[in-house]
Amino acid sequence: MFHRKTLPLRALRKRFTKNMGKGKLAKFADMAEYPHVFEYPYSVVDEVPFEMKGRWNQDFFKNENPIVLELGCGRGEYTVGLARRYPGKNFIGVDIKGARMWTGATEALNEGLKNVAFLRTNIEIIDRFFAPGEVSEIWLTFSDPQMKKATKRLTSTYFMNRYRRFLIPDGLVHLKTDSNFMFTYTKYMVEANHFPVEFITDDLYHSGMDDDILSIRTYYEQQWLDRGLNIKYIQFRLPQEGELQEPDVEIELDDYRSYNRSKRSGLKTSK
């Protein structure tokens, strides 16, 4: 029988909360009791087996609706916003920052949304939690562009190979970003691997495509808009076949600092 919480995980959680402030401690205490939150950071995943891989719909959602992931969900606004609009789909927000995730998790609980879950873990090991073909779509909303290291970039071929392990054949990947670097890199990556593109724009809110889904605005997105930055968007399909190639191109780095990220070197371009 599947048991959501386990005694070993409670004990291991003390490692992550003992040095936190009271605000974070309270939020983590809430998260530990939320029935729709699953906490498996990298350092505990080998010690606490995840029994729901391949059984999300059967054991948690109790339906056969498509599963959609938001990777790097932050506060969870997009995950919750999508769940409100699409009760016929199941949404899972994934992030390692539990104190941020608490916001969306609490909203979903208070609203009684049954098609929302949150997974607190490292995205580098995301394929440990889903079986082949278990996920239909992936959303990447305002991900850190990781301008210095491609293998940390959530649209790199490093991650595409991981997504292939659980995404349905030709499953959809959505990128919504303020970062010109991230957008440009992703375009080159998609072109280099001949992925089918469903839609692309470097100015979403003047493209005629800002529909009900895309117009969900997160806390950080509104900050970008207030600063006059265009929001970029690309939607493409990820085939299962073929060896993936990293684009070999120098891309100009973003020339601004975000609210929670900084340009860490004096370089002007990167791959």
Write up what this structure looks like.
Helices cover 31% and strands 20% of the residues. It has helices spanning 7-17, 22-33, 42-45, 56-61, 77-85, 98-111, 157-164, 180-192, 219-226, and strands at 37-39, 67-71, 90-95, 116-120, 135-141, 167-177, 197-201, 232-238, 251-252, 269-270. The strands form two sheets. It has an eight-stranded mixed β-sheet, with helices on both faces. The chain has a two-stranded antiparallel sheet with strand order 9-10. It has a single domain (7-270), classed as Rossmann fold (3-Layer(aba) Sandwich), CATH 3.40.50.150. It is α/β, with parallel strands linked by helices. α2 crosses α6 (98-111).
Structural category is: alpha/beta
Give the C-alpha Rg: 18 Å
Mean pLDDT, all residues: 86
The low-confidence runs, each spanning 5 or more residues with pLDDT under 50, are: 1-22, 259-266
CATH class: Alpha Beta
Widest beta sheet: strand line-up = 1-4-3-2-5-6-8-7
CATH topology category name: Rossmann fold
SS strand fraction: 15-25%
Summarize the biggest pleated sheet. 8 strands, mixed
Summed up, the domain count is 1
